[in-house]
Amino acid sequence: MEYEAVIGLETHVQLKTKSKMWCGCANEFGAPPNTNVCPVCLGLPGVLPVANEEALRLTALTGFLLKCTVSRYAKFDRKNYFYPDMPKNYQITQYDKPSTLNGQVDFEFEDSLARVRITRAHLEEDVGKNFHFKRQSGVDFNRAGVPLMEIVSEPDITSPAMAYAYLNALKDILVYGAVSDCDMEKGMVRCDVNVSVRRKGQQELGSKIEIKNMNSFSGVRKALEYEIPRQIAVLKRGGKLIQSTRRRDDTSSTTEEMRTKEQAHLNRLFP
Fold first, then answer.
1. N- or C-end of the chain: fewer Cβ atoms within 10 A?
2. Residue closest to 124 by CA, chosen among 235, 12, 18, 264
3. Could you state, in order of their start, the residue ranges of all structural domains in the chain?
4. What does the pLDDT look like over 175-191, one tens digit per residue?
């Protein structure tokens, strides 16, 4: 029995702005820890965030570059969750009315033209960065609040090599459009991978496995080269795949489970 992979990617891209999304703090890599912060991006009580006009412009520009529908009206929501690198305990993001919808990326792949459809490219804000030392951990909030665009693809990708080619094509578009520098060494591009397998010819999708926070395109390709055969092996021996979130271990070149999701996880969203 033959199986096939179904892959969708969520690509997070820091926008090329001088200041953060909701305040005047500098959008700057390499500053001393916790120096580019203020009451707004730290989420202190009583603050009044103001949207970054350039971030809104770059998001609309991305919509045109990706052949999306650019909405005349978009809105932001408050997505509530607790992580130590999110100082407000919520993220200002777009949910049901994003800035752009329904686009595509066309690129050369295996001597032909491939197309991956884009579900949406929406605007939100980045989180801080955790640092783990020998006896303690710390968090730098300089990155918290930096304008972040999430580009969500349809599950049109069928192989690790195709995922790699799509990501490089997407990066080229964003760099040439001056939307982002896309410097992966500075964390400007990160990717979440959604992958499932199913019998060839089957229409129904398999259980979605998410691999979080990939910070290189080659890492995405290697994670899929491990994860797809792993899922197929589970099904071939009669096992069952459960929707879950995994992380990639760079040392062993494997993925390992972080948490399972019996049902799709829904964050509390407020207008």
1. N
2. 12
3. 3-265
4. 999 999 999 989 999 99
CB burial string 16-53: b at 16+ within 10 A, e below: bbebbbbbebebebeeeeeebbeebbbbeeeeebeebe
Radius of gyration of the chain (CA): 19
- Element containing residue 224 per DSSP (H, E): helix 217-236
17's tokens: 């702005």
- The structure's pTM equals 0.92
Residue written as token pair 């949910």: 95
Cβ contacts of 233 within 8 Å, gap of 6 or more:
none
């982002």: which residue's tokens? 180
Alpha helices (H) in 66-185, listed in sequence order: 160-176
Place of tokens 């005047």: 24
Quick one: tokens of 136? 């303690």
Nearest alpha carbon to residue 16 among 164, 186, 130, 217: 186
Between strands 209-214 and 244-249, the pairing is: parallel
Confidence of residue 142 (pLDDT cuts 50, 70, 90): very high
Q: How far apart are CA 196 and CA 205, in angstroms?
A: 7
**Cβ atoms 99, 122 nearer than 8 A:** yes
Q: Which helix (H) or strand (E) holds 66?
A: none
Instruction: Give pairs for 47-53: CB < 8 Å, separation 24+.
Output: 49/22, 49/23, 49/92, 50/22, 50/23, 51/21, 51/22, 51/76, 52/17, 52/19, 52/20, 52/21, 52/22, 52/147
